[in-house]
Amino acid sequence: MYVVVCATDKQKTGSRKFWSVLFITILLKVINSVMSSLHVPQTLEQNQAYTDEEMREFEEHLAQQEQDLSLKADDLQKQRDELERQQEQLNAQKMELQQVKSGIP
After folding, report:
1. What are residue 68's phi and psi, to 5 degrees?
2. Residues of the chain whose pLDDT is less than 70?
3. Looking at the structure, do residues 9 and 58 belong to the same domain, yes or no?
4. Number of domains in the chain
5. What's the Rg (C-alpha) of the chain?
6. Residue 104: helix, strand or coil by DSSP?
7. Which residue segment(s) compose the domain that 83 sits in?
8. What is the pLDDT of residue 15?
9. SS3 for 5?
10. Distance between CA atoms of 95 and 4, rounded to whole angstroms?
11. CA-CA distance, 35 to 76, in Å (whole number)?
12. Is residue 5 within 8 Å of 22, Cβ to Cβ?
């Protein structure tokens, strides 16, 4: 790999910042060249932690769990409603007993 530096402004080429930027640019090009020759993936998308099939199965599993939890929540709500209804009946019976005991018709 050959690097050609063209500079028209002597002040820019003599500055420390110019040479630092040039060095970093060249270094990045060398690293990219080495990485591409080694066939090393450069992004996470190219080296997925999970296959598409594994992700699909996991999503199906999550959907099933969500459905199961929704059914359980519905069942628990029905049980709560029934318990509240029974509590209201007990409260009504308790009032009747108290009225009978106190002799209030």
Report:
1. -60, -45
2. 1-14, 35, 37-48, 104-105
3. no
4. 2
5. 38
6. coil
7. 48-105
8. 73
9. coil
10. 98
11. 57
12. yes
Those residues whose C-beta lies under 8 Å from the C-beta of residue 26, and which sit 6 or more positions away, are 3
C-alpha dist (Å) from residue 68 to 38, 71, 72, 78, 86: 47, 5, 6, 15, 27
**What amino acid occupies position 86?**
Q
Rounded distance between C-alpha atoms, residue 78 and residue 84, angstroms: 10
Would you say the pTM of this structure is higher than 0.85? Answer: no
- DSSP letter string over 71-100? HHHHHHHHHHHHHHHHHHHHHHHHHHHHHH
**C-beta separation of 13 from 7 below 8 A:** yes
Same domain, 104 and 72: yes
Q: Are residues 14 and 62 in the same domain?
A: no
25 Cβ contact partners less than 8 Å away, ≥ 6 residues apart: none
DSSP string, 35-63: HHHHT---STTTT-SS-HHHHHHHHHHHH
- Kindly list the distances between the CA atom of residue 105 and the CA atoms of 2, 93, 96, in Å, as whole numbers in the listed order: 108, 14, 9
Question: Same domain for 31 and 55?
Answer: no
Length in residues, the chain? 105
